[in-house]
Each structure stands twice: as C-alpha cells, then as structure tokens.
Specification:
alpha+beta; Alpha-Beta Plaits; about 60% helix; rod-shaped
C-alpha cells in the first residue's frame, strides 16, 4: 500500500473513531466475503458500519483519536463495528452472527467511553433494547400511580354508596 493511501486510511479511521459513540471489535477469520457482506447489511439499519482494518493503521488512528482502550483488541484479523446509535442492538446483531456462523469472534469494544472485554459485549447483547427498557420503566412507574388513582376514586364512590344507603333507610322508615 502506498504511503499516501495509508495516510488516507488512517485519517478515515480516525474520523470514524471520533464520530462513533461505540466500537465493537471482532475477529472475522474464516468468514467468506458473502458472510461479511450479510453482516454489514444487517448492521447498516442499526446505524453501524463494519470495517475490516489493518491493525497497524488502526493503532495509529486510535492513538491519534485518543482511543487507547481499543489497542488491546488489535491482534489477528480485525473487523470493527462503528456504532453511531444504540450499541446494544449492534452487539445483539454481532452476537447473533457469531452464533450463526460459529466463526465470528467478538474480541471486545468501547461502549460509550468504557472498555468492555468479549464477555462484557456479550452481556450487553443479552440485555433488552433501550426501547424495551424504557417501556419497562414506564410500566414500573405507572403501577403505583394507577393504584393511587384507583384508591382515590374509591373514596367518592364509597361516599355515594353510603349516602344512597342512608336515603334507602330513611325511605323505608317513612
């Protein structure tokens, strides 16, 4: 590779490292071109791009971008998923691809500035999505409020029933 082209690749990787909210590093050794293309197609709607990178160029770009936590994962064939949005969805997709292919290996990553090892990324993949967690939180917060509203509505209803009973007793006595 020409020196000018290497510098272009380093600049592009540095830009991706700075723009991405999270990065998940994988070992793609043994995957075919069609399998890699299928994984890329699956990641694009999730706001992620999968780059197959040279470790030496990625090291330089990571150091320039201040992402030194990525350096420990740069050995062997490396593909990096740069996540712009929800890293959980990307981790799920990569974990699914790893399970389906029995070849793709998750090495680790940087999720929202924190370095995660392979097990940490797999744990993230097993969690519900952000939308599901928001829905669960809304349900959990709504339960007590709904219970309070139900109890509060019982008070006027009880008063109306008591007044109705008193009226019926007076009518029966008269």
């Amino acid at each position: 590779m020409l020196k000018e082209r290497k510098e272009e690749v380093i600049v592009e990787l540095e830009r991706e490292l700075n723009d991405a909210a999270s990065m998940i590093v994988t070992d793609y050794r043994g995957l075919g071109v069609s399998q890699l293309a299928a994984i890329r197609r699956e990641l694009r709607p999730l706001g992620a791009e999968l780059y197959v990178t040279k470790n030496t160029l990625t090291r330089i770009a990571a150091q320039r971008a201040g992402k030194e936590g990525l350096l420990e994962f740069l050995s062997g064939p490396t593909a990096i998923a740069f996540c712009k949005d929800d890293a959980s969805a990307v981790a799920k997709a990569l974990a699914k691809a790893a399970k389906e292919t029995d070849v793709l290996q998750i090495k680790g990553g940087i999720i929202d500035g924190e370095v995660f090892d392979a097990q940490g990324v797999k744990t993230l993949a097993s969690l519900p999505s952000r939308e599901q967690l928001h829905a669960q939180l809304v349900v959990a917060l709504n339960g007590p409020i709904q219970g309070l509203a139900s109890v509060m509505s019982q008070i006027p209803r009880g008063l109306v029933v008591a007044l109705d009973q008193i009226e019926k007793q007076k009518a029966a006595a008269a």
